[in-house]
Design brief:
With 269 residues, this protein is α/β, with parallel strands linked by helices. The protein has a single domain, classed as NAD(P)-binding Rossmann-like Domain (Rossmann fold). Helices cover 42% and strands 14% of the residues. Helix 5 links the parallel strand 5 and strand 6. Helix 5 crosses helix 7. The radius of gyration is 17 Å and the shape is globular.
């Protein structure tokens, strides 16, 4: 039976995906930042699906210590993790508009929450995923991608929320391609996707597509038997597409991997 951890699962795509997978009988680990919203999410999913195999985990992904505690708790409480869906993220705008924000370590906030926290959490949970193989890692990225300027990754000059978001989303894809190579032969697959364009979530002001579109596209990467051996791919919805060219630059991916290891305090090699 599947056990799936979904980050950012108290609203939007994450919440809808959690309910969708719970309806199949899977055990769902719901992550978020607010206990009240977490409890409400679990109650709503249980009422809708009749599935009570639901677990709540609170962690602020801008704080690496909390990410480590999240991984420790999940590993202690579950011996089976068949999928990790890195869905939590900050959009192009936040309260304060285009003002650059940092976490407690001085790292730009979007790069931290959208990418670095997922990088750290995935590496910390790798032993559990490998032990549970076949298992899957899914990065919820975006069609909005921008190359990483390694001379100013934290965007201290000419800050743009759009640039910050788009480079963090490309970083997720670069990480995915790296993971696919590193995990080859282990039974763990890694894929990234743009779930749907401008879904009705809290980070989208003017929706274009339906939330169900994103749930379908993301859910198939978690459960579709036809994708059991598909890894190292980027999808736009359900269609495989080519990501930004920097994602295929091995030197750039190596540089990002090493930088990410330094920033999070782990060895990703």
């Amino acid at each position: 039976m599947q056990t799936v951890l979904i980050t950012g699962a108290t609203d939007g795509l994450g919440r809808a995906l959690a309910a969708h997978l719970a309806a199949t009988g899977a055990t769902i680990l719901v992550h978020g930042r607010d206990d009240a919203r977490g409890k409400d999410t679990l109650a709503e999913i249980a009422a809708k699906t009749g599935n009570e195999k639901l677990f709540w985990y609170r962690a602020d992904l801008s704080d690496f210590d909390q990410v480590r505690r999240l991984a420790d708790t999940v590993s202690r409480e579950h011996d089976h993790l068949t999928a990790l869906v890195s869905n939590a993220g900050i959009g192009t705008t936040v309260p304060g508009g285009g003002v650059r924000q940092e976490n407690a370590d001085g790292y730009e906030l979007r790069f931290t929450v959208n990418y670095l926290s997922g990088f750290l959490l995935t590496h910390l949970l790798r032993p559990l995923l490998v032990a549970s193989a076949p298992s899957r890692i899914v990065q919820v990225s975006s069609a909005g991608q921008a190359p990483i300027d390694f001379d100013d990754v934290m965007l201290t000059r000419d800050y743009s929320g759009v640039q910050a978001y788009c480079q963090s989303k490309l970083a997720q894809i670069m990480f995915t391609f790296d993971l696919a190579e590193q995990l080859s032969g282990t039974g763990v697959t890694a894929n990234a996707l743009h779930p749907a364009t401008y879904m009705p979530t809290k980070i989208v002001a003017n929706p274009v597509s339906e939330l169900a579109d994103g749930v379908h596209a993301t859910g198939r990467l978690v459960t579709d038997p036809a994708l059991a051996n598909v890894t190292g791919r980027y999808f736009n919805g359900t269609r495989e597409e080519r990501a930004h060219e920097q994602a295929y630059d091995v030197a750039a991916r190596t540089r990002l991997r090493r930088l990410s290891g330094e920033l999070t305090g782990i060895s990703p090699e």
